[in-house]
Amino acid sequence: MSAPHRVVIVGGGFAGFNAALGLGHAPVEVTLIDRRNFHLFQPLLYQVATGGLSPGDICAPLRHVLKDHHNVRVLLGDVHTINIADRTVTTDTIELPYDTLIVATGASNSYFGNDAWRKFAPSLKTIEDATEIRSRIFSAFEQAECEPDPAKRKPLLRFLIVGGGPTGVELAGAIGEIARDTLRGNFRNFRPEESEIMLLDASTRILSPFHEELSDKAERALIGLGVRCRTQVRVKAIDAEGVDIETITGMQRIESRTVIWAAGVKASPLGQSIAAQTGCETDKGGRVRVLPDLTIPGHPEIYVLGDLANLDLPGVAPVAIQQGKYTAKAIQAKLAGNPVSNFHYRDHGTMATIGRKAAVADLGGMRFDGLPAWLAWLFVHLLYLVGFRNRVLVALQWGSQFLTYNRGARLITDDKD
Predict the structure, then answer these.
(1) Which residues are tagged catalytic?
(2) Which entry of 7, 44, 109, 307 is 20 to 30 Å from 185 by CA?
(3) Per-residue pLDDT reduced to its tens digit, 186-223
């Protein structure tokens, strides 16, 4: 008997994970490699950062969710080298040969060449990022309680979020709810409602990919939570004391001790490695320009998915999920000698939540906001969560928050010790 077809998947995010699921009972040998032993549901990461959920609520152990797929093995490791000529993938512990390679290592936040800003303005891509941001937010209130001087207290209670996309909007709304609802009456030296929350963006409006009507409604909802949206501003410098911005009227300094970065992404370095070996193109963000069937020119055995691929599609979870499922079917069709159609993304719409009973949604041309959009957002995110346990836990947490305004995971931790 001939050896089974070997599929190596690099990355256990939405794309890689769904490719592994789709190949779970196929006549192939699958190896999924990830630097983490869990699948992370990134769209709810901001809720960990604001104390609404615990890290375990939005993570699913890869070995557990794939345990019934006996042709799939999971390896914990960081891929250092992909040798396309030899068809091998090398981690820090092992070298693996492949017949088909799926690369879905995603993206990280980009500081547009100013990586020194990371120290003062953490981004939100990992569980560690979320817990760091959570500690900074709640530590700011604790420090304000210990500061008797109102003038010195103001920068402690001023929160700046850079980036007016869905992540920035959701973070700003959540911090507004923390200040006005969750922490109301918890302090004696000041009122949390005195907090100042600013959302900064270089575009002419927040949520620029959304219809202008929905952007306006989102901004009004944020204003109701005490969030001030400042558009057409560019960040020029960030330090421990605050941010320098450039506006249409000139330079301005904003003093703040809590700055969060939610602007810009850059692709995994593996994209540049693939491009260097194959001659394929990458965009300015390092994403690989793939063919309509998600392979790269001249190499039908290599699929590039998710945020690492440039196919003129939005960088959202549904795209990666559909690409993972498509790739699993395409591989099986090729092995069976059947024709393979190009990938086609079924766009079911976009949505973003602002806060309690406030969200905006554009689903198949149907634009709505408020409570109906918020309920739709809750339902969709519960539907996409991996694992029955996580769905139940998150639903219970959301129900508790709705009734009590309390965020049970508002812990201050210090990972530096």
Answers:
(1) 170
(2) 44
(3) 999 999 999 999 999 999 999 999 999 999 999 999 99
